[in-house]
Structure formats: C-alpha cells, structure tokens
Write a structure and sequence with these properties.
It contains 7 helices and 16 strands. The chain is of the alpha+beta class. It is globular, with a radius of gyration of 21 Å. The N terminus is likely disordered.
Length: 367
C-alpha cells in the first residue's frame, strides 16, 4: 500500500496542478433541480441532452503497469469530434467532458481485482493542461477534474466478499449490478443500497438479470425503482471476447429497447488497440478504450436519469468483463521448475456470469 501511495503521488505531480483560471465556482444555478431521484446538476443535464458520441479512455496506464493493475481506475471521457487548444503544448486535444475516479480499498483491489466493491465518481472535466516530460518523453496531456464543483454522479458497486462476482450466476449473491446516484450522497458506502433500501439519490441501476441467457452477456438498465425485469434499455454483448480476439477485433455491445441485439438505442464498443503503444498497454495492463454511441433519435425522449444510467453502464461493463480478463499471452513455470508453459488466450467465453478462457498451451522443457 505504501508503494502504491508513493506511485500515486508521483503520477499526480506529473499531471501538474490546475490553475485558478480553470477552477469552476459552484453556484445555485448549477443545481436547479433538487427533487429526489433526479439529476440535479443542470450542466450535467445539458451535456446529457446533447446525446453525443463519447470516447472513454482509461488513464493511469503507467501506474497500472507498475502496480500490476492494483491502482484505482481513472476514466477520461472525451468528445473526439471537437478539438480544444492546450496551453503551452504544440498539439491540441479532444474536448474532455467528464473525468471518472474510482474510490475503493487497496486490499480489495489486490484480492478481488475487477470484482471488488467500489464507488466511481463522475466529475466535470476542466480544460486539458500540458503534461510534464519524463526522461525526455512527453507522456501526453493532463486531464484534471473539476473537484471544486464536486461529483455530478456516483456509481455504487457491491463486490467481493459481500458478493461472489464472476462465477456462474445461480443466486442473487452472484448477481453483478451497480446503483447510480445523483451527485455524491453523504456517507455512501458500497452495499448501502439494495431493493429494500433505495435512497432519494438513486437515479438508475445497471444489473444482470437472473434470467440472463447462458451465452449472451446481458445487462438491464432501469430507473432503480422499477423491477429489473422492466428495463428501459438492455445491453447485450458477444459470447466470445477478450484475449487475442480483443486485440484483433472490436467488441460490440448493443443497447436495445428489448432483447435481440437490435441496437436501436446505440452501441458500446470496446476498441481494439491501435499502434505499438496501445498494444503494449493491452498486453501489460487492463487499460482499455471504449466508444459510447447513443442513437440520437431513439434516445431523444429519454430522461436525464436514463441517459446518465446508459453512460454509467460503460464503466460497469469494464469492471464486469475487462478488469479481470486473462492476458493474451503469459508464461508460467512448471511444478518441477524444469520448464515453462506458454499460455496463448484465444478468447474468453461467457457462460451465465463467468468468463471461461479458451487457450492454447505450449510446453517448453528445460532440457
């Protein structure tokens, strides 16, 4: 934990401090809607109503690699169709929209990485700043969050050991779900919310239904107060994903109004790595990129709560499937210490809540 703390401080110093000109002052006009169970941040509502396609980049790649994936996740959500200048830098940047920061216990991430309890908080993004060079290399721009304005949305996920996520789903103890809250409820801890204790801050829920098809990853999106079998949207993915398949092909999740992968409400696409740097990230870390493409026509009638829940489901999918996936290639020593086994993960097969790796193995004897 001490090593992770020092590495986190080092990364924060690399990102640079925010200038006063970038700070946002929270005013009463930002929170015009204070009714329970609704999105209250007006600026967040305006962004959601734009229904624009967003690109989700997972940050902290260096720290992920150095800590073997044990650092808390950070997601940078940008609009790739808009460019903004970066003060002091030669290159401009995509327009940052939100920054998502995970809050979880270090021991939980160490023992149950990908299946741990957590809070993921969405912040408005401030303008990007120039990053600091490290050993003569420019690591990229920094994307600070508007911490002064506070979170506009919080995802609450209850994981292991309170639940047993990632196994064959035969009971509600294995059911993966997240609750979506408006803003930042005071004193909220993972597991505080359930069907019998739905607080006024709940605006949505992303949940795997108990009748999920055996070989089709399915997530129901609800307003948090409706039964999970009455969703306003359904996210469905492929049976085979990750491994070399994830390196060579995009992984497409359809967002539909009913089961069947029609995609009438949009898509969530886990992007395959492009270029040497992204391939290194894919092989050495759990850092992934996603594209969120809502159908502007069919989701125009959706409420801000529903649009926020759709956006939150992208982060939920990352933790469900791609924070604990098996690397495309890894090596293990044999029990007699006289050879090694090279595992090549072709893909992982979904089976009602669990992911089963499909691998080729090459045995190399020491002699």
């Amino acid at each position: 934990c001490t090593v992770v703390t020092h590495l986190t401080a080092f990364l924060h110093n690399m990102e640079g401090s925010r200038t006063e000109s970038y700070r946002q002052v929270v005013s009463e006009q930002d929170f015009v809607n204070k009714q329970p169970g609704t999105v209250s941040n007006q600026r967040f509502v305006e962004k959601l109503n734009e229904n624009r396609s967003l690109f989700i980049k997972q940050g902290n790649a260096l720290l992920e690699g150095l800590t073997l994936g044990l650092c808390a996740n950070v997601y940078i959500i940008v609009d790739k169709n808009k460019r903004v200048p970066v003060e002091g830098a030669k290159k401009d940047s995509e327009e940052p929209v939100y920054i998502v920061k995970e809050e979880s216990h270090c021991c939980a991430r160490c023992c149950f990485c990908g299946g741990h309890s957590l809070l993921a908080k969405f912040y408005h993004a401030l303008p990007p700043t120039k990053g600091k060079e490290v050993c003569g290399c420019y690591p990229g721009h920094s994307y600070p969050a508007d911490m002064a304005a506070g979170p506009v949305m919080t995802i609450e996920r209850k994981g292991c050991c309170s639940k047993w996520l990632g196994c064959y789903m035969c009971t509600t103890c294995c059911q993966d779900d997240v609750w979506v809250h408006d803003g930042e409820p005071e004193g909220l801890k993972p597991g505080d919310t359930n069907e019998n204790n739905i607080g006024p801050s709940v605006i949505g829920r992303s949940v795997v239904p108990m009748d999920v098809p055996c070989f089709t990853p399915t997530v129901n999106l609800t307003d948090g107060r409706s039964p999970i079998d009455n969703p306003f949207a359904i996210v469905e993915g492929p049976c085979l994903m990750a491994g070399w398949m994830g390196v060579l092909c995009d992984t497409i999740f359809s967002i539909s109004s009913q089961r069947g992968k029609s995609g009438d409400l949009g898509q969530i696409i886990k992007k395959k790595p492009v270029g040497c740097a992204e391939c290194c990230k894919a092989f050495c870390t759990n850092v992934d990129n996603y594209e969120y493409i809502p159908d502007a026509n069919n989701t125009a009638k959706f409420t801000p709560n529903q649009k926020a829940t759709m956006l939150a489901s992208v982060v939920h999918l990352d933790y469900m499937f791609f924070e604990k996936d098996v690397p495309p290639v890894y090596v293990e020593q044999t029990n007699d210490n006289k050879g090694v086994i090279i595992y090549c993960t072709l893909c992982e097969m979904y089976c009602k809540g669990c992911l089963i790796p499909i691998q080729c193995c090459v045995y190399l004897h020491g002699e």
